[in-house]
Design the sequence.
């Protein structure tokens, strides 16, 4: 399995890369990155990893990265540190349009995308903690919030793709690999998740072409 990774130089993307390589036999990765110097040495030197430098606005480089790929896994998302200063105009949602166009050009059907509670799911119910989180983001990081909402809208329109929006709550660096998947307000999910937990869940979906979460946006968390 050949997997294109977007957002591969961030903490969650790096965890995802390592988890795919260690858990899926015969897997190989294409890392499409703006800053190749940020790729850890133990990834850039791995014979199963190819690093391609480019911007998500660079259609030619993105098309090159998509060649021979079986699935796209994206850890793209607004920077927490830059939240209030996230650019206007939904740049990440527009980047996803370029990614999806390249997927269709090369016949790639599977997309796994990082999301947050800002992207609503029809199965969600009322939950005070998540409502407070989303309200805080929409108030103090309005442009980041609008971009995340637009990402969800962009992906959901793709009826011909096998997509899963993997929504995450507050992330931490704990080593907890146990993951619960569900929807906001179902009495199961909470507001905490380890970054490795995200990676474990995505790898499980990569390994299951008939996943129950296809064309859905589960919220995942640690127990």
Sequence:
């Amino acid at each position: 399995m050949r997997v294109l990774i977007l957002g591969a130089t961030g903490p969650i993307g790096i965890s995802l890369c390592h988890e795919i390589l260690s858990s899926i036999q015969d897997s190989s990765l294409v890392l499409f990155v703006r800053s190749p110097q940020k790729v850890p040495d133990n990834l850039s030197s791995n014979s199963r990893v190819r690093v391609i430098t480019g911007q998500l606005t660079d259609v030619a480089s993105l098309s090159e990265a998509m060649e021979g790929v079986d699935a796209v896994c994206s850890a793209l998302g607004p920077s927490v540190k830059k939240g209030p200063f996230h650019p206007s105009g939904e740049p990440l949602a527009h980047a996803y349009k370029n990614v999806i166009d390249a997927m269709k050009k090369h016949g790639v059907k599977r997309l796994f995308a990082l999301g947050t509670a800002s992207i609503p799911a029809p199965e969600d119910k009322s939950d005070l903690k998540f409502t407070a989180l989303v309200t805080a983001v929409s108030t103090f990081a309005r442009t980041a919030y609008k971009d995340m909402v637009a990402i969800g809208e962009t992906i959901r329109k793709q009826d011909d793709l096998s997509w899963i929006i993997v929504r995450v709550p507050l992330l931490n660096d704990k080593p907890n690999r146990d993951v619960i998947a569900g929807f906001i307000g179902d009495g199961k999910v909470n507001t905490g998740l380890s970054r490795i937990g995200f990676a474990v869940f995505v790898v499980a979906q990569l390994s299951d072409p008939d996943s129950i979460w296809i064309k859905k946006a589960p919220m995942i968390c640690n127990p």
